[in-house]
Task: structure prediction
Amino acid sequence: MAQEKIDFAAILNEEAQEFKEIQILNEAGEIVAPDLVPDLSDEQLVNLLTKMVWARTLDQRSTALNRQGRLGFYAPTAGHEASQVASELAMDKQDFLLPRYRDVPELILHGLPLYQAFLWSRGHQAGNEYPAELQALPPQIIIGAQYVQAAGVALGIKKNNKPQVAYAYTGDGGTSEGDFYEGINFAGHFKAPAIFVVENNGFAISVPRSAQTAAKTLAQKAVAAGIPGIVVDGMDALAVYQAMASARAWAVAGNGPVLIETMTYRYGPHTLSGDDPKRYRTPEMDQLWLSRDPLIRMRKYLTAKNLWSEDQETALVEQFKAEIKAAIDQADQIAPQKVSDFLKNTYQNAPQNIQEELQKFNQREAK
Amino acid sequence: MTQKTMIQAITDGLAAELAADDKVMVFGEDVGKNGGVFRATEGLQAKFGEEKVFDTPLAESGIGGLAIGLALQGFRPVPEIQFFGFILETMDSIGGQMSRMRYRMGNTRQMPITIRAPFGGGVHTPEMHSDNFEGLITQFPGMRVVVPSNPKDAKGLLISSIKSDDPVLFLEHMKLYRSFREEVPDEAYEIPLDQAAVVRSGKDVTIVTYGAMVREAVKAADELAQQQIDAEIIDLRTIAPLDTKTIIDSVIKTGRVVVVQEAQRQAGVGNQVISEISQRAILNLQAPIGFVAAPDTPFPFGQAESLWLPNAQDIVAKVQDTVNF
Result:
């Protein structure tokens, strides 16, 4: 047998060294990277925590509504607030959002009326009738598809000479899809303004991140596409905001896409459709991540700045609960769906088979 | 009018729409400098520039996603999938995504995409290039699947496909690309995407087919005419959605029908046609419906194509069975 003349172990080790996690605000609510603190006004900082409190409240209420049978499909978001809210707030309203099923908070923050998000959860088409000005797609289910489509949207933005970006989300499991690579590679080749966010919460339903790939980080997959990749503390809203805002500036300047891996955790199950995390997670693991909670550290940070108080938060939570109740009531008012509408929406102009079926369903629905 | 091959007519149609609409984008593997492996995009990049006619990395799913994303930004994408055998790599973009976008978003968004792909057998490609997967794509409501059988139709149907606000799969039979020329108008013109063509009138039997089998059916009809059998030929042109009315009108008139497809016998377009005839005109039939199709094996190796592909003689024999029933 020939000797190994090339030191592969050293190469592998070298590859893994490159991707250090970026943190700005630690668990104690202290700034640990002063040079990287995003340039946010007091008002913007308060807004950041306010929206994170909103997302946590929405998660709690959505879970309750699901158990009452008033909501359908739901993928819990608690634990993801920094990763989701801070990434969305760093974007412009005219940027194009390609979410996956867990990214409903970003969609609402981007402009989707809350009652429509509830209708989507219930499986009602009106949930996906997006206002013309809303720059977003409904949540993607076929994980990976949003990545190849983001490359296309970003190329379109570039060809239209708009100062915007496309931004897409997936989870740690999503990075194993072939489309993940095709998406980042296409965007990289075309220098298209796309931001690819990987919310690494450690589990693809039950399969741990370690079983997805031999790569030490998911961000390093960017190297193969010739684009920058970074790892950020996904429980740190300031780090996520800084990463997204910087990536946006880089992309809008014509430099191409960025891949951002946010290290986070979902406190709840994959979805409320029967998943039991006790099968694959330990209480110790849950406790460790709860101690890194994104809201706790932002509260500490803003309280120290005299920008936040418990009373203030209690009042906000009550306000959000009232808004959520109003939205679910509004969703209840939407008329039931009609197959005739589905038929009309299948083609621009109804072909023969659709016309025949329309006739049948129009009669049935008139009864 | 100029005598043109089908590939020239297709290039013509692409050029017409690139010139007419600034939002049309032609892209795919080797479509730029190389003009496509069959030269369908020959000269288009030089004429319309790299912004509108461009090569992509070699990844068909990426090409599908690119088309969807560009459509969301207001473009009218015309991607090429180099060979139809590679279409399976784009299956989610077609069946999971673009075909249902209008439905899924309650008619608030649309996907004006035309995917072009060379397909069919008879030109001895390496394995896994040819294939007749068109029946698969016809299973996705929201998609239109168009298959021209001649140069004049190819140009008109292609222009209509590009102008259509529905997603279209436009299938170009490789054997028809250069096998004959016919008069093709120089100007742009449209052919509706929901109308079959009666390419030959007859009173004794109806032959329903599409793609390269239309030429075989015409050869068969010439031979059958010598035997005093007067065949009517319907070229479906659009295999999804189907123009059922034209088929049924003809079958009621002739009372006998043979359905012909190049694809394998199992599932597929021909069986859908047979189903519609069975449901709507069975009492008008004087003989069982005839079906000419390829055997139920995977697409054959290049040198075995002539043993496998249906041809005019198969059609003649089946029509004789039907007429003499």
